């Protein structure tokens, strides 16, 4: 194994570890907090998190074994099942992010009617459509025997070994990425740019009120005035940073793999196996980054994590104090005798 392979193995192992722990923590927060579960976005987050965990425990280990062994890591049936899951989970993940962006758009653009427009039933219908949409492509690929081990990506994924089917497979792959990656990217851009526009409008209104207040309060200390202006600047940048993170992580993780798949099919340019595996690792890294981007950095999830940690520490302290009490009573008993 050369240094490239060792680096890819390390990247895969690190991605698996972070993804497993962070997605499991999101699930714990969802189970612990009734407030989070009552909200419609919880269904999208649950769908995304379960998909990420399934990808972490099934697809990533098989790819790791493929990189190490440099060949198909499992039997044909298991590899076809993993390829089916890989195709389904990739589309489901992208569409779940699009659903979360639609939810944010409704919440920001229509705040007064949000509860009426985005109920749990509406969220469940969106998740059902996501599953139906995502299942269409792997089911078609399974029927056409286009699932198996792809040496370039060291993964069980979409592939066709018959040269006479190259054009049909290329059209199918192009349609899959257009209706999963491209569609989700367009939805993300449209919804989050609308959200950014509304956020900037509200920031301007708050800035006007802040400036008027600062003008009226002539005796205000300069340091307080500076803090107000600094907070005003941070407020303007906050929405831009969040939206850039949502769209940026989507592009950085998925675009290299999608572009590589299309170049492989529609171009004669040779693609190195290390780049193929690296692009696949980047796609997997979305499963590790999603919990932080969409869940764990939000106030409700941080609060839930603190409550879970406090409960664990409280139980441990009760258990240790109970053990201390037992040992103390055992030490006293011989003396009393």
How would you portray this structure in words?
It is a single chain. This protein has 337 residues and is mostly helical. The chain has one domain (1-301): Rhodopsin 7-helix transmembrane proteins (Rhopdopsin 7-helix transmembrane proteins, Up-down Bundle), CATH 1.20.1070. The protein contains 10 helices and 2 strands, in the order ααααααββαααα. The chain has helices at 3-32, 34-37, 41-69, 76-109, 114-117, 120-143, 166-216, 222-266, 273-296, 299-336, and strands spanning 147-150, 155-158. The chain has a two-stranded antiparallel ribbon with strand order 1-2. α1 packs antiparallel against α3 (41-69), α3 runs antiparallel to α4 and α4 runs parallel beside α7. It starts with a helix and ends with a helix. Residues 22-294 form the G-protein coupled receptors family 1 profile domain. It is found in: Cell membrane. Orphan receptor. Displays a significant level of constitutive activity. Its effect is mediated by G(s)-alpha protein that stimulate adenylate cyclase, resulting in an elevation of intracellular cAMP. It holds the Pfam family 7tm_1. This is G-protein coupled receptor 26.
